[in-house]
């Protein structure tokens, strides 16, 4: 495939997959913007149970991406797995309406995240195979921006619908945009076949896990060990006095900033280096954590944390994925993305369980101080890694 052909296919796929992600995020985020309040205030879950649900859901999603990434490398095609993953997520979210216990919420959340696991590594591999390497940061940034635009619309819909149809009605309504996403994926996304990797899962992991990639994953692991879920921001907002009906708007603000920073972060990373921009993103989570360490900060602290958290998510979730292709050749990128997701998932589970436990046991200040420490250390390690590479060159 020529560079021009790849460029044309790549941009069509970026926009089409962006539209798929947009409607999926409308579906997901209208649910997830009200789910923490539903759990804590309606079902009566504790902060530890909230952290356990989010940690298990996201960790299992990331861990299972290892398998879907390997399968997509093995067959040399990505679209079928992407379709299965989006379909499972779309069909599972309405089941939140039937939950009466936190374990029911965990089961549905787990099913939704399995869908995300099946689709994510093949989707990222499809994007990276479609676009010339010098445009990867821009492509991932554009996809992230279109994706996150849905995460703005979703909480707005939840805010408007919640007083009219209550929690259960919002959960059922989420099916409609999910089905639109599946239709776009079926009709508009084009497969980009790559050479089949062959080999066993463990063999491909060993080949993909070269020394530089492993060093990168160590820093990612440290950062992920303190990267708490947005749900804790929403609970902190409620504790600071934000009325229940406006909690989705706090989540919307996170997603607005997440959306706005995606393309600039991607373009900047193409110009000055992706690791440099990633270190900045790590620093933004440190700022968010610091804003929540002092309970006396109140609504001002929550607002500052919300803004910093949105900037962190938009930067890190864009750039971490765009960094990976420089470490691993194209035929093993599904496995590489899976290995990356496995690392994030295991330590993300640790982060949310620890933050939830610390909050219940000794208070929110200690919980966010823990995240402040891990994010600062990861930022320093990434900066040191950049400096070492410059000296070696």
Can you walk me through this structure?
The protein has 15 helices and no strands. It is an all-alpha fold and 393 residues long. The protein has a single domain (3-189, 201-392), classed as Growth Hormone, Chain: A, CATH 1.20.1250.20. Helix 14 runs antiparallel to helix 15 (364-392).
Q: Report the CATH topology name.
A: Growth Hormone, Chain: A
**Overall outline:** globular
The helix/strand order is HHHHHHHHHHHHHHH
Global structural class: mainly alpha
What is the tally of beta strands?
0
According to CATH, what is the class?
Mainly Alpha
Number of helices: 15
Q: What's the SSE blueprint?
A:
Elements: H1 3-32, H2 35-43, H3 47-75, H4 79-92, H5 102-130, H6 136-173, H7 175-188, H8 201-208, H9 211-224, H10 231-239, H11 247-272, H12 274-293, H13 298-323, H14 333-362, H15 364-392
Helix pairs in contact: 1-5, 1-6, 1-7, 3-5, 3-14, 4-5, 4-7, 5-14, 6-11, 6-13, 8-14, 9-14, 9-15, 10-11, 11-12, 11-13, 12-13, 12-15, 14-15
Which features would summarize this protein structure in a list?
single chain, 393 residues, mainly alpha, Growth Hormone, Chain: A, 15 helices, 83% helix, 0% strand
């Amino acid at each position: 495939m020529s560079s021009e052909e790849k460029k044309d296919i790549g941009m069509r796929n970026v926009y089409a997959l962006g539209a798929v992600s947009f409607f999926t995020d409308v579906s997901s985020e209208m649910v997830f913007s009200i789910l923490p309040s539903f759990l804590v205030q309606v079902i009566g879950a504790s902060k530890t149970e909230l952290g356990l649900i989010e940690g298990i859901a996201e960790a299992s999603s990331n861990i299972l991406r290892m398998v879907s990434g390997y399968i997509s490398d093995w067959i040399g095609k990505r679209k079928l797995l992407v379709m299965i993953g989006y379909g499972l997520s779309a069909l599972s979210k309405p089941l939140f309406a039937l939950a009466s216990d936190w374990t029911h919420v965990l089961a549905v959340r787990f099913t939704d995240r399995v869908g995300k696991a099946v689709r994510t590594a093949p989707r990222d591999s499809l994007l990276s195979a479609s676009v010339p390497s010098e445009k990867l940061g821009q492509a991932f940034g554009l996809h992230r921006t279109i994706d996150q635009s849905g995460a703005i619309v979703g909480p707005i819909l939840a805010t408007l619908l919640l007083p009219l149809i209550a929690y259960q009605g919002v959960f059922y309504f989420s099916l409609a945009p999910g089905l639109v996403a599946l239709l776009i994926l079926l009709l508009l996304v084009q497969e980009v076949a790559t050479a089949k990797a062959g080999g066993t899962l463990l063999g491909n992991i060993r080949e993909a896990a070269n020394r530089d990639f492993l060093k990168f994953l160590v820093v990612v692991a440290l950062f992920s060990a303190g990267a708490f879920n947005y749900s804790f921001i929403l609970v902190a907002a409620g504790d600071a006095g934000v009325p229940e009906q406006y909690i989705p708007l706090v989540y919307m603000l996170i997603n607005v900033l997440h959306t706005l920073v995606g393309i600039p972060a991607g373009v900047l990373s193409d110009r000055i280096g992706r690791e440099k921009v990633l270190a900045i993103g790590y620093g933004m989570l440190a700022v968010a954590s610091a804003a929540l360490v002092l309970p006396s900060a109140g609504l001002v602290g929550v607002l500052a944390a919300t803004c910093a958290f949105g900037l962190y998510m938009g930067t890190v979730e864009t750039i971490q994925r765009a960094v990976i292709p420089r470490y691993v050749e194209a035929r093993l990128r599904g496995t590489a993305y899976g290995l990356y997701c496995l690392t994030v998932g295991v330590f993300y589970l640790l982060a949310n369980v620890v933050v939830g436990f610390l909050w219940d046991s000794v208070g929110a200040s200690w919980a966010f101080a823990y995240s402040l420490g891990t994010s600062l250390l990861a930022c320093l390690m990434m900066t040191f890694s950049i400096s070492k590479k410059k000296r070696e060159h």
